[in-house]
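Structure first, sequence second, as always.
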């Protein structure tokens, strides 16, 4: 896009310069030729006066006298009484487009002055040089200005293209600024609305799958066990027992169908997961949190760390973790580590003096963060240190409950307390 904008801007400048410069060049060339013709006429008048005075005084007219009356590229020819005297400074072959002037002499004879077309063309070139340089300068300036304007005009659309690509890989909540260009602003609003709709649709699918899993399978299992018990009762007639066993088979087929539907929904959710650079995502979250003001937030990534998760859900979870850690904190530090058996994000709060550990405080955001961690298949826990939270993401072997962390350890060498992501503390 930038190249096309620059080409359009420079092309328009070239057209404008051409429309102005070409007529101007013809006007300058005609003006120079008129000036040179006037010079030739003046030289002819002066030379005729000098020759007439010398003839009247009985002095000879020689080539040296005529040379003193001419400049480079000019020739004077005097014809008197059948004799011709020619100046020697011309130095050019006669051409049909040379400028000429002829004057009759008193007492008979003629005087002719010729100016070389090559000398006239040199004068025209010198006069056109500023016009040509001005046009080239305008084209170069237009190229530089076009490059600057193209970058400014193309930047919103490049950011929008990146955001549109992010929708395809699961980044459903792009952070896009407001744009002064109406078209870019309309695209921005469309991307934000589309991402929100996709996110809501995914959330509804997750809730439906969880609801179906809990509300359908459990009653079906209980009903199947009740039917089997009824079929085994001695008081149940054989015909009724047979019918009950057939009903159990129908319930099994229904359970299989429900399981296939739930598995299909789970597979679709897994397909929406992509390889995300955890370090870059954490850096984006920290940067936006720092821009919002409040306690300083720093990030200490150890390099690119890949995790196969849904980016929008992970981004929301990280924002909740950082926001929760900033409550009553003097500063917050976020660390990313992929050197162990699993990607790890650790949020550490540097508490103000006299503040009790965050684990003992009411934490309204922890339940939401725990639910998001469950949706990601991750494990969210509090560390042993006050104001510390650790997130282990899918992608490797998670330590068993109660074992120390393989990548970091607490002050005493033991890892953090492992707590259920369902809201333990």
């Amino acid at each position: 896009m930038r190249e096309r904008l620059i080409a359009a801007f420079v092309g328009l400048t070239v057209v404008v310069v051409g429309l102005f410069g070409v007529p101007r060049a013809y006007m300058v060339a005609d003006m120079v030729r008129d000036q040179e013709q006037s010079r030739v006429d003046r030289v002819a008048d002066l030379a005729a006066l000098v020759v007439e005075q010398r003839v009247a005084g009985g002095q000879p007219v020689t080539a040296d006298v005529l040379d003193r009356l001419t400049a480079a590229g000019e020739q004077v020819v005097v014809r008197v009484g059948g004799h011709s005297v020619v100046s020697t400074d011309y130095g050019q072959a006669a051409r049909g487009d040379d400028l000429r002037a002829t004057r009759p002499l008193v007492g008979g004879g003629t005087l002719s002055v010729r100016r070389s077309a090559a000398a006239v063309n040199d004068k025209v070139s010198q006069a056109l040089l500023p016009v040509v340089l001005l046009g080239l300068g305008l084209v170069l300036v237009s190229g530089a200005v076009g490059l600057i304007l193209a970058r400014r005009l193309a930047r919103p659309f490049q950011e929008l293209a990146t955001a549109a690509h992010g929708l395809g890989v699961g980044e459903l909540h792009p952070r896009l600024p407001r744009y002064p260009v109406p078209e870019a602003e309309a695209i921005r609003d469309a991307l934000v609305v589309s991402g929100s709709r996709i996110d809501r649709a995914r959330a509804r699918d997750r809730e439906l799958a969880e609801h179906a899993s809990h509300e359908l399978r459990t009653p079906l299992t209980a009903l199947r066990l009740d039917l089997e018990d009824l079929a085994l009762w001695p008081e149940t007639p054989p015909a009724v027992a047979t019918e009950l066993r057939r009903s159990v088979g129908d319930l099994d087929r229904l359970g299989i169908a429900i399981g296939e539907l739930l598995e299909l929904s789970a597979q679709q959710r897994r397909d929406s997961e992509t390889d995300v650079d955890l370090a870059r995502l954490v850096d984006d979250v920290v940067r936006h949190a720092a821009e919002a003001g409040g306690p300083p937030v720093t990030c200490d990534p150890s390099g690119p760390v890949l995790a196969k998760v849904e980016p929008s859900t992970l981004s929301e979870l990280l924002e909740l973790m950082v926001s929760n850690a900033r409550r009553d904190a003097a500063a917050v530090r976020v660390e990313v580590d992929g050197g162990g058996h699993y990607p790890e994000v650790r949020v550490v709060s540097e508490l103000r003096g006299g503040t009790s550990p965050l684990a003992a405080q009411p934490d309204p955001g922890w339940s939401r963060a725990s639910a998001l961690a469950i949706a990601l298949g991750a494990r969210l826990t509090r560390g042993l240190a006050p104001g510390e939270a650790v997130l282990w993401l899918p992608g490797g072997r998670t330590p068993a409950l109660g074992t120390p962390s393989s990548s970091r350890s607490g002050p005493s060498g033991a890892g953090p307390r492992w707590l259920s992501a369902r809201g333990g503390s």
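Margin note: Residues 274-392 form a domain with the Heat Shock Protein 90 fold (CATH 3.30.565.10).
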